[in-house]
Amino acid sequence: MTSRVLMVLVTLVGCIQAADKYWDYIVVGAGPGGLQMGHFLQKAGRNYVLLERNSVVASFFQKYPRHDKLISINKRHTGKKNTEFNLRHDWNSLLSDDKSLLFRHYSKLFFPQRVQLLDYMADYQKKLGINVQFHTEVSNIRKETNATTNKTVFLMDDQNGNTLKCKVLIVASGLSKPVKPTFEGREFTENYSNVSINPDDYEGKTVVILGRGNSAFELAESIYGSTNFIHMIGRSRVRLSWATHYVGDLR
What we know:
disordered N terminus; FAD/NAD(P)-binding domain; alpha/beta; 6-stranded mixed β-sheet; 2 domains; globular; 6 helices; two-stranded parallel sheet
């Protein structure tokens, strides 16, 4: 093979690699929301990719909730045959045409275990062939407009210095981060993300929990039998989801 032919081949390979950095749609995050969007993009035959910084889909549930039990209900029997009605009582299944991808086939528990949801999400991605690029963390997201065509593309950088481009960017990376207190004495507090979940560590102790949401009550319930007292402090009254119709409030 001549050096000129070899040079042409190298140039072509370089062009192919560069082309692989562009998609019409990029979804940042491969949790439940990202996977659901990925399914619809796949079904519509779109050029897309889900970018996930971890090695598995729905990686949030590898650790949370800390005590392993979900607060999303899995009511398998409603006495009705209406699919839409039954889905209103199934808070874990994602939408698809595959009847095997209903969460009722993964757990019989009304409040399932988080590992069961992890298994379900992994199967959802694999069975539906959703395009996920793992170990990809992006930053420096920006827009660029072509002065001639007036068309806009989104650009972002991954951890390896590659620039990724897309026409439509969808962020599905989650809604919340751990709250870090700023008051004096914060160095003596522990965050929900790393506090011990072993009830023996609270034996005979008096515990103060800052917050009165689902995480706070999850911890309180798990250690209640080991403590002297549990004081829960919040900035507002407890809001119950059955009254507010907001799933983020206390269930």
